[in-house]
Amino acid sequence: MRVIASAVLILATAIAGLAQPPAQSPVERGKYLVAVMDCHGCHTPFKNGAPDMTRMLMGHPQDMKVAAPPVTPAGWGMVVAETNTAWSGPWGVSFTTNLTPDTTGIGSWSEEAFINTIRKGKHLGNGRDILPPMPWASYGNLTDADLKAIYAYLKTIPKIANKVPAPLPPAKK
């Protein structure tokens, strides 16, 4: 009986060990979070209806000019660019940020500035408001460890020089 009990205990321990996911490094965790939070859905320009991973997380293309906020049709809250990187609504026009480690992206941001941006909904943690559709209020509930992991991952992706324009104010009526 003891042998059977020991075998069952060993088997149960082995199965429990298999059921646990392997430990992730912060960069692996950050990559996972960027994927499941769909950061590519807005920060990677679309091509043919899907994120163009050759421009991964570069934000709104600098060569795609938007001169003024388009007028939204009656009953519609916002208009979205075909790249899914520019959004127009009552707030004006917002452009998705370059999240690559290039200096035109978050390359010069500190980890603290990145975390404060997400927590406070302010550019660099104390600047202009982060505009719709960025769900910073929800993402601000992430743990410090998760935000640090996202930052760590973003620092490892390829740099893409892409100076995203500043937001545009709302159209005057």
Going across the biggest sheet, name each strand in turn: 3-4-5
Number of strands: 5
Domain count, please report it: 1
Distance between the termini: 84 Å
The description of the largest β-sheet is: 3 strands, antiparallel
Tell me the number of helical segments per DSSP (H or I, 4 or more residues long): 6
**Helix-strand string:** HHHEEEEEHHH
**Estimated helix fraction:** 25-40%
The best one-word shape is: globular
Q: Which class of secondary structure composition applies to the elements?
A: mainly alpha
Low-confidence stretches: none
Strand content: 5-15%
Radius of gyration from the alpha-carbon trace, in angstroms: 21 Å
Mean pLDDT: 87
Your description of this structure?
This protein has 173 residues and is mainly α. It has one domain. The chain has helices at residues 2-19, 26-36, 40-43, 111-120, 136-139, 144-154; strands at 46-47, 50-51, 79-80, 86-89, 92-95. It has a three-stranded antiparallel β-sheet with strand order 3-4-5, with no helix packed on it. A two-stranded antiparallel sheet has the order 1-2. Helix 2 (26-36) packs across helix 6 and helix 4 packs across helix 6 (144-154).
